[in-house]
Design goal:
The protein is an alpha+beta fold. It folds into two domains: 84 residues, no CATH class; 125 residues, no CATH class. 42% of the residues lie in helices and 18% in strands. The strands form three sheets. A three-stranded antiparallel β-sheet has the order 1-2-3, covered by helices on one side. Strands 4-6-5 form a three-stranded mixed β-sheet. Helix 3 crosses helix 5, helix 4 crosses helix 8 and helix 7 crosses helix 8.
């Protein structure tokens, strides 16, 4: 259950005045690891096969100019980043988690997006892309987070709003929630389908009711603030 994505957030800072940046190291790393560019993407999606499994790396950024377009990275002629509103809160709202790798390996601390930042970013995907997996991820995390469920998720999302936002994240949240207004709504239907495909045996009408109730609690808490 849950998302099949592993989202790695790297602060490589493609700014508006980015001509002096040099992302040659990123191009070299992709080439050395054996990734191949997915040509249809324009350079923001790269593919490698590991133990028979396809692994796709997608580069995204959140800068004020060129919304919805790919931005070529200076010094890396084959690599681009897809620019859209959303990743910035995930970068700013970060938590460190200790991963224990086994008795013979030292533990490491890894930086992950916090719950609020993740949901602000995922809401952008719900509104702008609207894939079934986006609807599913959004509801699943709101329902099953470790922070306390939908109400705490809404409070965390409100707390994760950037102090000087370049986009109206609250409007994005509002639009995302409209996809879950009742049991027949597009987002709810997608969530139910994905849960059933993952093997969940809960009756579909219960899954739908859970999604609607969770999104209502989430949004009420978000509007009230932290």
């Amino acid at each position: 259950m849950g998302t099949a994505d592993l989202d790695l957030l790297l602060d490589v800072a493609p700014r508006y005045d980015r001509d002096d940046d040099d992302f040659g190291w990123l191009q070299a790393a992709l080439d050395a690891a054996g990734f191949t560019r997915i040509e249809q993407s324009g350079g923001w999606r790269w593919l490698i096969t590991i133990e028979g499994k396809a692994v796709v790396v997608e580069f995204m950024c959140d800068v004020p100019d060129s919304q919805g377009l790919t931005i070529l990275l200076p010094g890396a002629p084959q690599v681009a980043a897809l620019n859209f509103a959303g990743p910035a809160p995930a970068l700013l709202d970060a938590v460190e988690i200790q991963l224990n790798r086994g008795p013979s390996s030292p533990a490491v601390r890894v930086r992950f997006a916090g719950l609020g930042g993740y949901l602000l970013a995922k809401a952008t995907a719900v509104v702008s892309r609207g894939l079934d997996k986006d609807f599913y991820d959004f509801v699943f995390v709101i329902l099953n987070n470790d922070s306390g469920g939908p109400t705490q998720a809404g409070q965390d999302a409100a707390s994760a709003l950037p102090q000087n936002p370049t986009h109206d994240y609250t409007e994005t949240i509002r639009q995302a929630v409209t996809f879950f207004g009742d049991v027949s709504a597009q987002g709810v239907a997608a969530f139910v389908r994905e849960m059933q495909a993952a093997g969940d045996s809960t009756p579909p009408d219960i899954l739908a009711q859970d999604a609607v109730a969770a999104l209502g609690m989430f949004y009420d808490a978000y509007v009230q603030g932290p």
